[in-house]
Design brief:
The protein is of the alpha+beta class and about 190 residues long. It has helices at about 10-20, 25-35, 40-60, 70-75, 150-155; strands at about 65, 80-85, 90-95, 105-110, 115-125, 130-135, 145-150, 160-170, 175-180. The chain contains 5 helices and 9 strands, in the order αααβαββββββαββ. The chain has a 5-stranded mixed β-sheet with strand order 3-9-8-5-6, with no helix packed on it. The protein has a 4-stranded mixed β-sheet with strand order 1-7-4-2.
Length: about 190
Amino acid sequence: MTAACASPVADERLIDYWTRDLAAADATALEEHLFACADCSARLEAVASVAGGVAALARQGRISGIISRAMLNKLQRDGVRVRQFILDPGETVPCAAFPGDDVVVTSLNADLSGVQSVSLRVTGPDDTLFGAIDDIPVSAAATGVLWVTPGAFVRSMPSTQLRLTLRSADDALLGEYVLEHTGLEA
């Protein structure tokens, strides 16, 4: 059992450190703390364990939801094959997933200034709800959200139009986006 840290490192900083998303000077200062603090070192070890598991699950096509840019970068460094689509509000983009794609990442750009959390709704023809994610926390520096979907699931979908709607916690519309999905012919 380790002694509790008097000034624990925030989980977000540990994740950023593990995914190599910290400036060199900040990483050096964090490493000094980690070498001196068994509690925070143990927490970093847990982050590393989870991150390795996420990459393995991504390659198996078993993760979906919202991920951070740092986690996306780490997945790509770990060899996860990513197909990415980047959309601005009001934009329609053709999309598909191909046999080598482990995951499909849809980057939804939006003005998130002053926003602390968002919700995402994905609907198909006749407003059929395909999925919804509520209370997605966003940082002050965020410029959008990254939605990850298993490549195998996307490949199994027929050709269809998907409408994605991003709203703030107070229900203000932040962006509407359209994916024109082309299913793979058997």
